[in-house]
């Protein structure tokens, strides 16, 4: 799998006002998704989650699915990222009818760029809201509040 990573820092979790790092990862269909193609065109919600098809991650993904029209009505692109494989993401998206992009970060490179910490020995659950110009306007870090990530993102977009 090829990764192209631009900018960013692995020195800690990004914060409000930071420029969102650019990256290229494979989506659930095996196609390259380049963050640089989105920045400058529309706001983005990027949510990092631990693992496909687990109870908390399924709740979170289904919450984003159920609120998807609220995001698209605001012109926002929703992207989920975990270290699962392209095949795992495809199965997860099909099983739960997820209408948004899932990206495979098998080497945790994007996770490192965004400084997403581990929580309880698992890859962390962090959501970033990024404005059209690529600035982070909100982030939310909560391993146990899986469904709260959607509320936080929508609130930040008001």
UniProtKB/TrEMBL annotation:
The record places domain Thioredoxin at 14-158
What are the record keywords, sorted? Answer: Antioxidant, Disulfide bond, Oxidoreductase, Peroxidase, Redox-active center, Thylakoid, Transit peptide
Q: What is its EC number?
A: 1.11.1.24
Q: Does the keyword Cytoplasm apply?
A: no
Main subcellular location? other
Q: What is one Pfam family matched by this protein? A: AhpC-TSA
- Gene Ontology terms, MF aspect: thioredoxin peroxidase activity
Reactions the enzyme catalyzes: a hydroperoxide + [thioredoxin]-dithiol = an alcohol + [thioredoxin]-disulfide + H2O
Q: Which domain of life is it from?
A: Bacteria
Q: State the compartments where it is located.
A: Thylakoid
Gene Ontology, cellular component aspect: cytoplasm; thylakoid
What's the name of the protein? Answer: thioredoxin-dependent peroxiredoxin
